[in-house]
Amino acid sequence: MEFSSLQKARATYQPKLPIGLQSNVEIKIGASTQSVGNQDEIRTLFPNTYGLPLVEFAPTEEKKEYDKFNVGVILSGGQAPGGHNVISGLFDELKKQNPDNKLYGFLMGPGGLVDHKYKELTADIIEKYRNTGGFDMIGSGRTKLETIEQFDRGLEICRDLGIKALVIIGGDDSNTNACVLAEYYAKINAGVAVIGCPKTIDGDLKNSQIETSFGFDTACKTYSELIGNIQRDANSARKYWHFIKLMGRSASHIALECALQTHPNFTIISEEVEQKQLTLDQIVDEIAQVVAHRANEGNNFGTVLIPEGLIEFVPTIKRLISELNDLLSSEKALAVEGQTPELQFKWVVDNLTEENKQTLLALPQSVGQQLALERDPHGNVQVSLIETEKLLSQMVEARLVQLAEKGQYKGKFAPLHHFFGYEGRCAAPSNFDADYCYALGASAAQLVLNNKTGYMAIVKNTTAPASEWHAGGVPITMMMNIERRNGKAKPVIRKALVELDGAPFLAFAESREKWIENDNYLYPGPIQYWGPTEVCDQTTKTLALEQK
Ligand code: FBP
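Above: inputs. Below: predicted complex with 1,6-di-O-phosphono-beta-D-fructofuranose.
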């Protein structure tokens, strides 16, 4: 394995730990909890892991002796900067408490547990990955852990390796499954605990206990650097409109954060589209008005930020997706399984209600096909595959032609398209993510050593210096409610969308008019690892505004 100069220098960075995890740790048991919704149903579904108390780690003089522990770790879902530091924090804390403790990494995601593919993570391996981006130490995958057969297969390998706890690093869906697994192992007295860890660049795994998911900070800073560079280019050449789609699944947290960091001319927030019940035509009209306004000032250039989940929030399309979800997970869909895409698409069209059929057929064919046929293993529409940036710019162009005919637009419209997602998911973690992830890993180890199960590792007070952060654990059931997924009511962790009365959106709404005009762009530049703290250790604007 070769290392760049930055990697070599970065490998020596020692992530900072909260005071509660710096030496001997005492576990403080807090108040018992209840789920955020559907309490009776969640209690019935999770009799062994419901209502557990919050826990926090505090420093103590006393050195506690722990039993020997072998632990398995799994990276689940999309990459997020800092995953390797979660594993390093977990490894270091386990070894600190007992050098005989062993850590096994299951390979390529939850599938590694089911297929018994693993490797022991030794000090030599860990050293190579400290403070690096990516999940390549053990790989990641999207296999959904949901059947008893999978759980039992997992148990077999845990027994073979003497594993007493699994740490599952994932987003809301993966942590929901971790909770189901924890409950099952508790029910059958398997002797294997399950602990989750909040990962996702999307920023949608947050609530009263989780301030932010790891990776959001680095990913947003990376995209904002790129958007800033594009804006400087646009402002220099003055000839292109840049339509920039940003990852983030359903939630617009990434688009909102990047807007706060870079001040683009126009930003769409999906949650606002839904609240105002905007149609695609109305969104296009708003963008076209901004393009025309800027053209009148002689500025035939600009930037538009588009959240990747937009299409799901346009009310007519939302109704279509909801019917598609039910239709595609129904038994009758089995009849066309394995058929050609053309036949499957025809079957879908024939089985939709009239309104949704019209909505589907009015979309460009490629977009319609993606909505109707392609799902990820959790049953989600694969929004990252839908080229909304092109769809919108084409529609804006057509609208500008109409405005020109009415004498309301005189300009030149040359759009360019970008999709930022994969560019940021494996970036080297910012100081924030490096520290946050290392602390999450150490917290997960403490939860394991203290025989907790069905918990997620958490770190709070994250806008303060790292030594003042509070580490602990939250029962996963506390974050759950019942939602409709794949046509069925299921217990799931409630996803956090952008709150339109929240401080980040309000700060954006207050300034966006101003950003339509020229010369308000911000150019954040690349993530800095060494230098003044106001440059290197700032959290996201979202977190700063939310925790203000
Ligand atoms: P997670 O929810 O697994 O963290 O996904 C993050 C994400 O980057 C989304 O923003 C994006 O929609 C999706 O992964 C893309 O998935 P894939 O990596 O399978 O293309």
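The first helix runs from residue 5 to 11.
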